[in-house]
Amino acid sequence: KAGVTQTPRYLIKTRGQQVTLSCSPISGHRSVSWYQQTPGQGLQFLFEYFSETQRNKGNFPGRFSGRQFSNSRSEMNVSTLELGDSALYLCASSLDLGDEQYFGPGTRLTVT
Amino acid sequence: GDSVTQMEGPVTLSEEAFLTINCTYTATGYPSLFWYVQYPGEGLQLLLKATKADDKGSNKGFEATYRKETTSFHLEKGSVQVSDSAVYFCALSDETGGSYIPTFGRGTSLIVHP
Fold first, then answer.
1. How far apart are CA A6 and CA A4, in angstroms?
2. Which residue of A has its CA nearest to B87?
3. Half-sphere exposure of B80 (CA within 13 A, CB side)
4. Could you say which of A109, B22, B36, B114 is the most buried, measured as most Cβ atoms within 10 Å of its Cβ?
């Protein structure tokens, strides 16, 4: 069974731009979560989607948004990029809410 | 809110040494507990889990027991290998109002020398 895939793997953007990251969960998984990982803050929860609905949201500004499609694929968008948004963005899928999560390799975003 | 506290790293050991990485948590509900491992350049992988008190999760020689009375979930391995060098994350999933909130610790880096 294919694992969680994330595209692109690496991205370089400039301040003020916006970016969209994509995540394809494991087949049959209905929940997709997004995390931001930085050396300073560690792993921080962004949001979780289940059956196309946002179920949970972490403590991030409204510039961070996401959505989930009917096939469970998910995208997250960051608008008006700031230097502090440079991070590894991880997507994780699970069969159901609260189940163990399976992580993708991440998208490394660098904002210059 | 919920929180997970892990011991600061890095933890540096020689091959075949005994490993313990401490993890304690606070939670409003009755959470499930997890250990994840992250190898360099990769995402996190589930290592083991426990869903109720006194459950022992185990995988690849690693073990952790859900201790509700001490709110702990310490990770242990009897004999580490160089290939175990990675960052280990303790995590919990707690239900609040029908939603499951994931909370991760800061991670503990393990370095195993030959």
1. 7
2. A42
3. 23
4. B36
Residue with tokens 């939670």: B27
Q: What is the pLDDT of residue B56?
A: 97
Three-state DSSP at B105 gives: coil
- State mean pLDDT over A20-47: 93
**3-state DSSP of A61-106:** CCCEEEEECCCCCEEEEECCCCHHHCEEEEEEEECCCCCCCEECCC
Q: Which residues of chain B have pLDDT under 70?
A: 97-98
The answer to whether residue A54 neighbours chain B at the CB level (below 8 Å) is no
Sort residue A51 into left (φ over 0), alpha (ψ -120 to 50) or beta.
left
- Cβ neighbours of B105 in A, within 8 Å: 42
* Residues B108, B11 contacting (CB under 8 angstroms): yes
Q: How confident is the model at residue A79 (pLDDT cuts 50, 70, 90)?
A: very high
Q: What is the pLDDT of residue A1?
A: 65
Chain B residues lying within 8 Å of A101, measured CB to CB: 44, 46, 102
Q: What is the pLDDT of residue A99?
A: 83
